[in-house]
Structures are given as structure tokens and as C-alpha cells.
Design goal:
343 residues, homodimer, 2 domains, Phosphoribosyl-aminoimidazole Synthetase, Chain A, domain 2, alpha+beta, 12 helices, 7-stranded mixed β-sheet, 4-stranded mixed β-sheet, globular
């Protein structure tokens, strides 16, 4: 029989987790006291965000392996910091755990989370563990820093700015659909989760282990190349709408310019769906959408150079007229509504 | 029929909540962007803590009214800041909500949380809303500030220090038992929750709406009167054990000195329990346990003057011998284990 967390007890579980945490010198009091005490970064502002992963809502344990749950829980928060132009520094972890959860699952979940933390030099400085009478819940607060003049918000877009996106869009939705299909065909949960770990395709990996665009956010902020920025957690259509509303502008997208991978196009065509509409609506990509002033092309080139191979693609323009439209060879249509959690 | 949160939709719910939030001038970017941006307090360190309230684990909706859920969710976090000697500044709120939850419940929950925030000048600077397929979960991260030389930790107790506690202990446990008994007798959930709101006794109120000892923590830190400090979230026995372990010392408590209200004693005697053991083990009090050096009596008097009527009671002494004991007229016995979440 496997050891469950209720066999181990709360205190022993906390000790097991904190033993894996490294504490950098700017952490004055780390995990294990009533609260963490941290030196703010000199000359910078603090940036705070919180985002949760709930079993049955944000992930399905049939095909999301424990390390991917931990990976996603931190990555989605670092994506929010990236969208502000902030450098990640620290995180707090709140775990709400079903009694029957086995210790291996927790160890792997922490492994996935700490791998992302290490990759981005984030210190887990505190947290909390509680029982759950229902789903597994992993709630993370991420803490970063940004200089005042570099803060990226959603509200700075102006008519005439170009609209850009990092990387490719729509991959994670295809990855999720592919994982769901495999889970429905293959019955046994553990087998599918294990397979997801070893035989994942590139789109599935985009869903399971998204790479937050921290370097891109820092490059855009550092070169002051963006007028507004937001991450694509809820899809491109949603992000376009949010930036337009916050900035009181319109946005016109060019469907032909959208960076959609060939595999993603083929997947949707196989489902007899419009690939552009599907890519606009798909969530979980964690790319950055940003706007940039035409007079700042030099700054944008500077940011692009800092980013190496990650593509920055121009996909549209900010308009004075407050409409949200997509133009293709067929003509101009309204932007789809995008993903909504409570509907 | 009542309006549920799934009728309203996520975005409208976020707007409804953020409309109630005030943003002080040191908040550079408040709720509604990817993350909050906040000026750190000049010359101070940041203090971070997170604690969660889970339905069915930390509260029973039969007798904890929605405003009390919100009150407790923030208060337990402010209590952790108080134990570090920190001044609360900001909070992030993560709500995981069952679809069928009605809007009145959320409004009242937010009312309770914001009343505590106002009382302690805490700005809710960000948060997140998610669906729950199970229980209602309210997860809060609280952010405070403290000067480096004023930080209170668990690890500073030294042999010879006096052991002190604020207020009275064991009240919340009696309050919880009383509320549970009324709920078991009175069947209908809503009626009991409503009654809990209007006819609560003082112990019940201590459980439902604990007052975090923020002023006491600030006074102890400001007068540098404490060598170690911790809050009593999991009971006095647990806190004594934690401070002793972190400080590598023993603690001897004087049972006769414990500040236990007469009503609390009578309740336990009515249950044929030892009132001292029951008060030592009871959780949810949110008083502060601290140690103070005998040579610093003047500082402790200074802190006491700053606190007015809140009693600071000496309940024991820190010992070189690493044992945890309680001495009464019957003799000396080992400290009970205290509350354990996963057992």
C-alpha cells in the first residue's frame, strides 16, 4: 500500500517539503515561521499575483501527471508577472490536499513546481497545507519586482500601435483535446498519466508544461518596447478584448498573420473547424500579447534581439474606433467572445 | 430564486467585487491587471503569509455565517503578520466557488473580509476567482512590513525568559463546541447561521470573528519587548512546542497562571473535562504567545501601556532543559500534543 499524506501527518509533510527549499540571502526569514520576511529589491516596486489550479476545473488527473500539476501551478503565476514586465523572485504555496492523496504524488507535484522555480530563480518562501474534503487545490502567490518606469499594464495601448504576440497560439487547446481523446480511449487513469509523461507531443507539452514568457516580458519592459501587455491565459480573443477595454481603444486583427502552427491548423481542419476561430478562442497558451508604438521600432528590435529565437509576430493594429474585428480574405468579422470560466 | 454566481458570470463577479475595493496611493497598479504593483514601505522588509479556509475543514456553513467566513479568512492571516511584529498593508484573495453559490453569500463574505481589511487598513490589491467542483475555499495571502531590527521570530527564546500570552485562551474551542451543539439540535442550516449572527455568545464570537492581535504584535516589536513570538492558531500547547523547538529550549508552564475565562472553565467542567488540558489543546484563539527577557521588564511595561486593556499574562518560563511541562498543584506533567490537522 502507498503512504498517504494522512498517514504521514501535517507536520512531517511540511518538513518533507521545506527540506527541498533553498533560501537565498535576501530571504531574512524563510519557511517555518508564522510568515516569511523578505528584503524588497532596491529601487524597484513589488509585484504580486495569485492563481489557482483546481482538480476537475483546471486539470484532469487522468492525463495531467503530478509534476505537470506543480509545473502549471507556478508557471501560470510567472506568466502574470511576465505580463507586467516583472522579474520573479519568490512564491508562496497553498496546498489543499485530499486525505487519500499518496506521498509520491505530492513529491512529484513539488518536483514539477520546484523545477520551474529553479529555472526562473524563484524562492518558495512560505506556504500552507490544509486538508481537502473534495478536489486537490494548488494555489500559488508569486512575487516579483519591476522598476517604476518599466511597468507594463493593459491600459497603455493607443491608436496606431501595432499588436504583437510571442510564440505561437492555439497549441495548448489542441494539446488538451488530444490528451482528453487519449484518456477517453484508454480507460485506466494512471496508465494515461504515465504515458502523458513519456509520449507527449509538442502541443500536449504546451498544455501540460507551459513555459512562462518571463524573458520576453523583461525584454519588452527593459527596452520599453511595449505600450500595453497581457498574457494569453484565457486565449487571444479574451486578451485582445481586455487590452482594448482597459486602453479604451479598438483592435483589428489580421487573420492571415496569426502565428498558428501547421499541426494546429491540421488538427482543427480534421475536426471541420475554422483554425483561426479555434486558435483565437483557445486558452492556456501563456504567450504574451502586447502593443508597440510604430515610432519605437528600434526598441522592439532591441527586445527581439534579447529574445533570440522566440518569434514576436505582428498580428494587427490598435484603432481609434472601439471595435474588435478580425480581417481575412473572406472579409471583416467581429472577434469571438473567448473563453469564460463560469459559462 | 436566488442569483447564483454561474448566472452572473466570472467577469461580472470580478467587477462586482473590485468595485468595493479602495486603492491607497502606494498601490501603483491595483486589481484588474495581470498582477498588482505596490511600493514597498521605505526602510522596511516585506512580510508574506498565506492561509486558507476550506468549507468542511475550517468552517461549517450550518453555523458560520458568510460574513464570518470572510472575516476569518483575512483575520487568520493578519494574526500571522502580527506574530512577526509586522504592520499589515495588503492582501490577495483567491476564491474557489461552487457554481450553485448564491450572490448574497459572496456579497456577505466580502463584507466580512472588507470590514477586517478596513479595521486594519489593509488594501485588497488583487486576487483570483475560480470554480470549485467541491467545497468553498477562501485563500488569502497577506502582505505586511517590518523594520529589520523589529522582526519577531519563533527562534529567539532563551533560558530564563518569561513566557507570556495575550488575552484569554480556550475561548474559541468552547465557542465552536457551543455552535456545533446548537446546529445539531436545530436542524435547519440557514436558521442556525442567521442565529449565529444575532445571538452569539462571547466565546462563539471569538470562534466566528477572531480579532487578530496586530496592535499587540506591533507594540511588542516596536518596544523590542519580545525575544520570540507566535500566534495561537493551533492552540497554546502547539505554539509552546513550536517556539521551544525553533529556539532549542524547554518551556515550563504554570497551570494556575493560564488566563482562562470563568465561562470557559465552567463549560469544560460541565463536560467533565480538565479545563487546563482543554484550553491548552484548543485551537482558533489567535492570541500571541511570546517570550521576554527578565532584564527587559521596562520594555514589556512600555508595550503593555501601548496596549491599554488587553492583558499580557505571564504563564511560564523558558528552561535550558529541553522538556515541555505544565506544573499545577497536582505536580508536573508533560504538555499535551496539541491539535494536529491531519490526524
Amino acid at each position: 500500500m502507498q503512504t498517504t499524506i494522512s498517514d504521514l501527518g501535517e507536520r512531517a509533510l511540511i518538513e518533507r517539503i521545506t527540506a527541498r527549499l533553498a533560501t537565498p540571502p535576501w530571504v531574512v526569514v524563510g519557511p517555518g515561521d508564522d510568515a516569511a520576511v523578505v528584503e524588497p529589491e532596491r529601487g524597484a516596486l513589488d509585484v504580486f499575483t495569485t492563481d489557482v489550479q483546481v482538480e476537475g476545473v483546471h486539470f484532469d488527473r487522468r492525463f495531467v501527471a503530478p509534476d505537470a500539476i506543480g509545473h502549471r501551478a507556478l508557471a501560470v503565476n510567472l506568466s502574470d508577472l511576465a505580463a507586467m514586465g516583472a522579474r520573479p523572485r519568490a512564491a508562496l504555496l497553498s496546498l489543499v490536499l485530499p486525505d487519500a492523496l499518496d506521498l509520491d504524488t505530492i513529491d512529484q507535484l513539488m518536483g514539477g513546481l520546484l523545477a520551474v522555480a529553479d529555472a526562473h530563480r524563484v524562492a518558495v518562501v512560505g506556504g500552507n497545507i490544509s486538508r481537502s474534503p473534495g478536489p486537490l487545490v494548488v494555489d500559488v502567490t508569486a512575487i516579483g519586482s519591476v522598476r517604476r518606469r518599466r511597468v507594463l499594464t493593459r491600459s497603455g495601448a493607443r491608436a496606431g500601435d501595432g499588436v504583437y504576440v510571442t510564440g505561437t497560439i492555439g497549441d495548448a487547446r489542441v494539446g488538451l483535446e488530444s490528451l482528453q481523446r487519449r484518456a477517453d480511449v484508454n480507460g485506466h487513469p494512471a496508465a494515461v498519466a504515465a504515458r502523458a509523461d513519456t509520449q507527449v507531443g509538442p502541443q500536449e507539452q504546451r498544455y501540460l508544461r507551459p513555459q512562462p514568457r518571463v524573458r520576453a516580458g523583461l525584454a519588452l519592459a527593459g527596452h520599453r518596447a511595449a505600450t500595453a501587455c497581457m498574457d494569453l491565459s484565457d486565449g487571444l480573443a479574451d486578451a485582445v478584448r481586455q487590452i482594448a477595454e482597459a486602453s479604451r481603444v479598438g483592435i483589428a486583427l489580421d487573420a492571415a498573420a496569426l502565428p498558428i502552427a501547421d499541426e494546429v491548423r491540421r488538427w482543427h481542419e480534421g475536426q471541420r473547424r475554422d483554425p483561426v476561430a479555434a486558435a483565437l478562442e483557445g486558452g492556456d497558451d501563456y504567450e504574451l500579447l502586447f502593443t508597440s508604438r510604430p515610432t519605437n521600432r528600434g526598441r522592439l528590435r532591441g527586445a527581439q534581439r534579447a529574445l533570440g529565437t522566440l518569434p514576436l509576430t505582428r498580428i494587427g493594429i490598435v484603432t481609434r474606433e472601439r471595435r474588435l474585428v478580425v480581417t481575412s480574405a473572406d472579409g471583416t468579422r467581429e472577434l469571438p467572445e473567448g473563453f469564460r470560466h463560469f459559462r
